Amino acid sequence: MEPMESSEAIEKIILSRDGDWEFDHQVSLVFDDHVRKSIPCYNDIQELIGILSKRILSHNSLVYDLGTATGEIIRSIHRANPNTKIRYVGVDKSVSMLKVAREKCRTMKQVTFYNQDLETFTFKPAELIVAAFTFQFIKTEHRPFILESIYKALKPNGHFILCEKISYADAAEHDFFVNVHHTWKENHFTFEEIRAKKERLKHIMQPLTLEENMALLGQANFEHPQLFFKWCNFACILAKKAMVDHL
Ligand SMILES: C[S@@+](CC[C@H](N)C(=O)[O-])C[C@H]1O[C@@H](n2cnc3c(N)ncnc32)[C@H](O)[C@@H]1O
């Protein structure tokens, strides 16, 4: 690739490739812009996670950002807590995405990035764990184990934020909301680009229904998970570990 290639040109390339979607070098170069054109209200979700974090974190708190990609969530939590000494850990299995994250967070102190698969990751005790649009890329059968590890790692009163693209149990309802999302995406992409990306995500993204996500959190022992943001087929849930651990 030419070093001077524009973001638009790179985005056109990633949208016209064959094969399954990958978080590779080219995607990492345009991710921050592309994600905002793909997930409705992405900036609002980021800001809201920052605001929630202010109510959860204090000096020396530990935050994990799972599937950190280019470190956007870490940066928004840092922006919301400028005077609080927080330790951040970003985890992602993509070397390319982490390269961008490290560069963007280079002036921040107390940030560590791990290039690791969440399926084998070992957590330290933490106050807040965030997984924004990451679990949808993890095989459904592996999610309960990871959620259990998250629950165990959280300190009493610790919080987990799960943001996901969701599906609907009723096929007609599902198609309706998928099409609403596609109509929104037409603000930024051509019909053919939207269709092609849907095809490339087909084998690697497995959205669950809101009820299935809530049930998984319940199975992992989280009590009363709360839906705090929803835009058609996108949902964000705040789940809390009880003060007294019932495990
Ligand atoms: C849609 S992006 C996440 C966006 C990011 N959390 C944000 O809000 O800006 C999904 C990320 O999850 C990472 N990912 C997917 N499955 C993973 C796994 N099993 N372990 C670690 N990272 C994973 C991908 O490499 C990718 O960077």
Explain this structure to me?
This protein has 247 residues and is α/β, with parallel strands linked by helices. Helices cover 43% and strands 21% of the residues. The protein has one domain: Rossmann fold (3-Layer(aba) Sandwich). The chain has helices spanning 7-16, 25-38, 42-56, 72-80, 95-104, 143-153, 171-185, 191-201, 210-219; strands at residues 62-66, 87-92, 111-115, 126-132, 154-165, 223-231, 234-240. The structure holds S-adenosylmethionine. S-adenosylmethionine (SAM) is lined by residues 23, 35, 67-69, 72-73, 91-94, 97, 117-119, 132-134, 137-138.
Question: Helices and strands in order, then pairings?
Answer:
Elements: H1 7-16, H2 25-38, H3 42-56, E1 62-66, H4 72-80, E2 87-92, H5 95-104, E3 111-115, E4 126-132, H6 143-153, E5 154-165, H7 171-185, H8 191-201, H9 210-219, E6 223-231, E7 234-240
Parallel strand pairs: 1-2, 1-4, 2-3, 4-5
Antiparallel strand pairs: 5-7, 6-7
Helix pairs in contact: 1-2, 2-5, 3-4
The structure holds S-adenosylmethionine.
